[in-house]
Specification:
about 800 residues; alpha/beta; Oxidized Rhodanese, domain 1; Sulfite Reductase Hemoprotein, domain 2; 5 domains; 32 strands; about 35% helix; globular; oxidoreductase activity; oxidoreductase; metal ion binding
């Protein structure tokens, strides 16, 4: 580890090569340490690989360093903007491949360089002369194999798990101690040696011990490795192969039925604290399997309710609304009835997987909630956790006159097949399935682990299978594997994929253990071949596929195949009061056929309406708030839970988004463009995850934190132009826009689109035609705000 002052002195003397491991775009546009060369982390570290070991090939690494003008004898100093893990990864890779010069990590990274003196960044990129760098695995490289880890567990070394505390609690190598790399830092800088030695000694990590590190992304163990070597630890090694079988065998029991019984017991015997005291904190992770997600406020849960295909009876929907109204109530310590300034209390959220979730649920109330649910056929089981999640279906299934296959029986069979099944209760990660029977891919097959769309074989109607789609880090559009599936084969196919996932997926590497990474590593054809060995039916190709289009939502009044109508009601951000949800269910019972549906756009749908009933529904006062004819921004807003309850949330989403949508609709009306746009889709996630599916929006946002010369506060990364109908995700365009600037950025972008687009050109088509440089100029060319007082914290 070296300080910014050390780097400045040695850089000025020309005795070091400075390596910037950030994204090439940030290096070029935001600036870098003067004279630093760029070796982006995504070039020497492949986060999508699930192969044993994550080191790049020696020749590939040598080519990177050669292009950067680095010799084997050079002293190198690496830095990034993430606190150091990726820069540490670069140094560790150089170590393994025999770099002979000194290797240093800049303590505190780029932020420390700027804060620790009057220093600026440069956008002038050096033009290094390529070298003949040679990389070869050292004989004494500090990387160990599985046998070494076995020996370490038997007492040969201290085994150190550098993953997060939650991951460590869920499953770990036997006997491993936990050390989160972030605990080694204070305000982004390495803690003083005394504090570090005390911290390490508490975990039995002493300078005279042999230490074996492991994690799931390699970068975290790399930072710990560099720190230990900096402190003088001589015998430090790391393992980064697959520990899946071992970790899976050591994982605690994941029996959903047993977990339900445990919760029922503690509901009457001591509640939350008694449950945690007796079963351990790690039980909180397992409770996801039965629909209970511990929220950031200790002792309170988010409860998620499954609705297969989004279909509920009116009685079920009414029960859900009544439960939310009665039990989803904040305690006085968190604001009571006024805990949320926009939504009040007793509310629920419709999700993008056609579930319903509510907050502030206490263990003492769960047994009664489940009893009410049992009485109407509802379940929370496997609504969360690493299992087969709620099956998404077309919200208009059985209503669309152009539907090829009636999907609801298929959805129900798949749901019942895996509900409570112990064998499938602990997959490597969640497994998402969608089924569409119409020709518009309403259930979004492109972002599912398994997406089924209508197809035909020998005159028989069935489905085409697409596999390996998903969002978040490493987004991927699902692959067509040219497989025709009969309706009665679907549950067998899901089981076969789950079995393959358990055998080949990683239980340790949570950064890369979604099923899409397996599909990418096998390749679609090889994945199909491997999947066939798990299935009990012969794989055949379809004669024709029948999906013609993509449908974003079902808001509005639509004609059913039987001449009646269904109405899609817009629920901005998916949140509404439990009492209102129950009232909408009563309308569905009184005016329709006792059916109530949820959509992947966080909206609700009331089907089976004759003309008189349709007129009565449209006249109901509730529809003034949940309109079938909303403004374009209100119609297009989609959000996750956000910072309000989520442990990972960086920005608040629900309140902010509904305020933005209303203000932007007013602006669009004043600007005369509201009628020109049916929906303008803003998808906002509170963190880097993709619960709000930001990659699909016209505007995609994900929460961030920023600091500048005047303030620190909340921000958002911005991307433009998602279009799932054409299998296109947004291009992430600009990072860390101050959150208060986002509406202005949206307005500026829409003005530019309306002024520059060609007749009939969609927003996505326009963003693809317009250069990223021009788009960045549009979104960053807003008038600067008056700077607040120095030190002001903006939330």
């Amino acid at each position: 580890m070296v300080s910014p002052a050390w780097l400045e002195a040695n850089r000025d003397a020309g005795s070091v090569v400075v390596v910037d491991v950030r994204e090439a775009r940030d290096y070029e546009e935001l600036g870098h340490v003067p004279d630093a060369v760029t070796v982006p982390a995504d070039r020497f570290r492949d986060p999508s690989s699930v192969a044993d070991g994550k080191l790049p090939a020696a020749d590939d690494f040598a080519a990177l360093l050669s292009a950067a003008g680095i010799d084997r004898e050079d002293t190198i100093v690496a830095y990034g903007d993430d606190g150091g893990p990726l820069a540490a990864r670069f140094l560790l890779t150089a170590t393994v491949y025999g770099h002979e010069g000194n290797r240093y990590l800049l303590d505190g990274g780029l932020e420390a360089w700027l804060e620790a003196g009057d220093r600026s960044l440069s956008t002038d990129a050096p033009d290094p002369e390529p070298t003949a760098y040679e990389a070869r695995l050292r004989d004494d490289a500090p990387i160990v194999d599985r046998e070494d880890v076995d020996a370490a567990v038997e007492g040969d070394a201290v085994v150190v798990d550098t993953r997060t505390a939650a991951e460590y609690e869920q499953s770990r190598v036997p006997g491993a101690v936990h050390l989160d790399w972030a605990d080694l830092l204070e305000d982004g800088w390495l803690r003083d040696e005394g504090a570090l030695e005390e911290l390490l000694a508490e975990r039995g990590i002493t300078p005279d011990a042999r230490v074996v590190l492991y994690c799931n992304t390699a970068r975290r163990l790399s930072h710990t490795y560099v720190t230990l070597r900096h402190l003088g630890y001589e015998d430090v090694a790391f393992y980064e192969g697959s520990l899946t079988d071992w970790v899976r065998a050591e994982a605690p029991e994941w029996d959903p039925l047993e977990l339900q019984e445990q919760v029922r017991y503690y509901a009457d015997n001591g509640g939350f604290e008694a449950m945690v005291d007796e079963l351990g904190e790690d039980v909180l992770g397992r409770l996801k399997l039965i629909g209970l997600y511990h929220q950031k406020q200790r002792g309170y849960f988010m409860l998620r309710t499954r609705a297969p295909g989004g279909v509920l009876t009116a009685e079920q929907a009414r029960t859900v609304g009544e439960v939310a109204d009665e039990f989803a109530r904040a305690p006085e310590a968190y604001g009571g009835p006024d805990q949320n300034p926009v939504f009040g209390d007793g509310y629920l959220d419709v999700t993008t997987r056609q579930d319903v979730q509510m907050h502030w649920i206490e263990i003492e109330d769960v047994a009664e909630i489940w009893d009410r649910y049992d009485a109407v056929g509802l379940s929370t089981m496997q609504a969360c956790g690493n299992s087969v999640r709620n099956v998404v279906g077309c919200p208009a299934a059985g209503l669309d006159p152009d539907e090829t296959v009636d999907i609801q029986p298929v959805v129900e069979r798949v749901s019942k097949r895996f509900l409570g099944d112990h064998h499938y209760a602990n997959l490597p990660r969640k497994f998402k399935v969608s089924v569409t029977g119409c020709h518009e891919d309403c259930a979004r097959s492109g972002i599912q682990d398994l997406g089924l769309t209508p197809a035909r074989k020998d005159g028989r109607d069935g489905f085409l299978a697409r596999v390996g789609g998903g969002l978040s880090d490493g987004p991927r559009v699902a692959s067509d594997i040219d497989l025709f599936v009969e309706p009665d084969q679907v549950e067998d196919l899901v089981a076969a994929m789950a079995d393959l996932f358990m055998d080949h997926g990683s239980y340790l590497d949570t950064a890369v253990n979604r099923l899409r990474f397996l599909v990418a590593e096998f390749g679609p054809e090889a994945f199909r071949e491997e999947l066939a060995t798990y299935a009990d039916f012969e794989f055949v190709e379809p004669d024709e596929t029948l999906t013609m289009d993509y449908r974003g939502d079902h808001v509005g009044v639509h004609e059913q195949g039987d001449g009646r109508s269904y109405v899609g009601l817009n629920v901005p951000t998916g949140r509404l009061a439990g009492a209102e949800f129950a009232d909408l269910a009563r309308l569905a019972a009184d005016l329709g056929d006792d059916e109530f549906r949820l959509t992947p756009n966080q909206n609700v749908l009331v089907p089976h309406l004759d003309d008189d009933e349709l007129e009565d529904l449209l006249a109901d006062p509730l529809l003034e708030r949940y309109s079938p004819d909303p403004g374009p921004f209100t119609r297009g807003i989609v959000t996750c839970t956000g910072r309000e309850f989520c442990n990972y949330g960086i920005i608040e989403t629900k309140n902010r988004a509904i305020r933005w949508a209303r203000e932007l609709d007013d602006w669009a009306t004043e600007a005369g463009i509201a009628d020109d746009h049916e929906a303008i889709r803003i998808h906002m996630s509170g963190c880097s995850a993709s619960c709000a599916q930001p990659q699909l929006g016209d505007f995609g946002l994900r929460g961030e934190v920023y600091r500048d010369d005047y303030e620190s506060g909340r921000a958002a990364d911005l991307g433009l132009g998602g279009d799932l109908g054409n299998d296109e995700f947004i291009d992430w365009l600009v990072g860390k826009i101050p959150i208060g600037d986002v509406p202005g950025v949206v307005k500026a972008t829409m003005r530019a689109y309306d002024a520059d687009s060609e007749p009939g050109e969609s927003f996505t088509e326009w963003t693809r035609r317009t250069s990223n440089a021009a788009l960045r100029e549009i979104v960053t060319d807003e008038p600067a705000r008056d700077p607040p007082a120095i030190g002001t914290e903006v939330s």
